[in-house]
Write a structure and sequence with these properties.
four-stranded antiparallel β-sheet, 18 strands, globular, alpha+beta, ten-stranded antiparallel β-sheet
């Protein structure tokens, strides 16, 4: 008699939790890490990370760039479209499911496997930390000159349209209306959307949105989409060599149409991210500033840059370390802190990293300045916690195996040694801090 066949659900679970699937996923992760590292030499970190590690599928592989990075042969611009290769996001999601089903649900539960189960749980926590960081972390930049103080930073990637009424009194409180990028990023050529607010005497229509663009003068005078002699031209996100441009080098643009709610008069303008000044419109005797900018976030504390220095490698002009001495201002309290490239300041869920330095010579004023990368990441400490849990789980598993080998009570032996090691580690950290 033939054995009863497994039901389809059991077969799916068995496949998703199999060692074979885990091996394939890990091999593909190794492959995209290798390819992404090679392409990084020409395309930069941000572009390679987006293509290989933050994507569902890898859209293409630049074979020529990879071979040049390996110093094998120069084939020029030889690109292989490959939409079937899963990206890092997809592979990590599959690995999460595989480890959850195989390392937590289906694994044999016994004293012999408790350490392995703990370690698997910690790795799942680390993968989850990456997903939380990708979807919910906020990253931005703050630039300060020596002596300046600020509690605001600009997002790297989130763009908004701001509408601000010009106040007659300079001391009056600012009131800015913000339209998030998600509400107009789908408005390409021929599409438009009208935004209205009870406090505004006009409606604002956004149309002809382009992610990478710049205004260009219509010299021939033959185009039908010209506003004040200019039209929006889409630009390539890569330079002449084929290397992807950094996000901060690219700008978005769109057409804005202001329509008076009472009279119906219309005013048209182009909003460009790199514009020197906001678009100014006058409606009902009041002036309004409309601009396309990066979103501004406010910190729960302020930072004052007291002093900043650049340290170079001996005998070279290559930077070795940027260091900033700052004062953290919060609730009337002042706290002196030091920020370097690998030692951020952490407070209130935010991390402040040293990212850039300027001696002021290029600006001609000689005033030094520092650029800080600000990160608000809900899962900031999850990787550290997961590493500690992994170490504890593997240590427990090793000590229990050693206890069985020594023919002593494995639970008492493992618990005693782990307590002693953790107490010693905690005492050492207390002394150091």
């Amino acid at each position: 008699m033939s054995p009863p066949s497994q039901n389809p659900l059991a077969k799916i679970v068995a496949f998703l939790s199999s060692f074979g699937l885990a091996t394939v996923v890990l091999a593909l992760l190794l492959l995209i890490t290798f390819l992404g590292t090679l392409e990084q030499a020409e395309y930069g970190l941000v572009a390679s990370q987006a293509r290989y590690f933050e994507s569902f599928f890898v859209d293409r592989i630049d074979i020529g760039a990879c071979l040049r990075a390996l110093a094998i042969v120069d084939l020029g611009r030889f690109t292989l479209p490959l939409y079937i290769l899963p990206g890092g996001y997809t592979l990590m999601a599959i690995l999460f499911v595989n480890m959850f089903l195989g390392g937590i649900i289906r694994i044999r539960k016994s004293p012999k496997t408790i350490g392995v189960i703990i370690s698997h749980f910690a790795i799942l926590l680390m993968i989850a930390a990456g997903a939380v960081s990708y979807h919910f972390a906020i990253e931005g930049n703050m630039s300060l000159r020596e002596g300046e103080t600020s509690d605001e930073f600009l997002s790297f990637h989130d763009r908004v349209i701001e509408i601000e009424k010009v106040q007659a009194d300079d001391k009056a409180k600012r009131s800015v209306l913000v339209i998030d990028e998600s509400q107009y990023e789908d408005l390409g050529a021929g599409k438009g959307r009208t935004f209205t607010h009870e406090s505004l005497p006009f409606d604002l229509m956004i149309t002809n949105w382009k992610q990478h663009a710049q205004p260009k003068r219509d010299r021939e005078g033959t185009r039908g989409d010209v506003i004040d002699g200019y039209f929006i031209q889409e630009v390539s996100p890569v330079d002449e060599s084929g290397s992807a441009l950094a996000d901060e080098q690219l700008a978005s643009a769109c057409v804005a149409i202001v329509k008076d709610k009472k009279g119906g008069e219309e005013q048209k303008g182009i909003l460009w991210e790199f514009a020197a000044a906001p678009w100014t419109v006058t409606v009902g005797g009041d002036k309004y500033l409309i601009s396309l900018v990066h979103r501004t976030y406010r910190l729960p504390f302020a930072i004052k840059l007291d002093k900043t220095e650049e340290e170079k490698h001996p005998g070279t002009r290559m930077a070795r370390r940027f260091t900033s001495w700052v004062t953290k201002l919060e609730g009337g309290r002042e706290e002196k802190r030091v920020i370097t490239m690998n030692e951020p300041v952490r407070s209130e869920g935010y991390a402040v990293f040293q990212s850039t330095f300027s001696s002021g010579e290029g600006e001609g004023n000689g005033v030094k300045s520092s650029g800080f990368m600000i990160v608000e990441n809900p899962s900031d400490h999850w990787p550290l916690i997961s590493c500690i849990i992994v170490a504890e789980g593997l240590l427990l598993h090793f000590l229990m195996m050693l206890g069985r080998f020594l023919k002593v009570n494995e639970w008492l032996f493992a618990a005693g040694v782990m307590f002693a090691l953790n107490a010693a580690f905690g005492l050492a950290m207390w002394k150091l801090l």
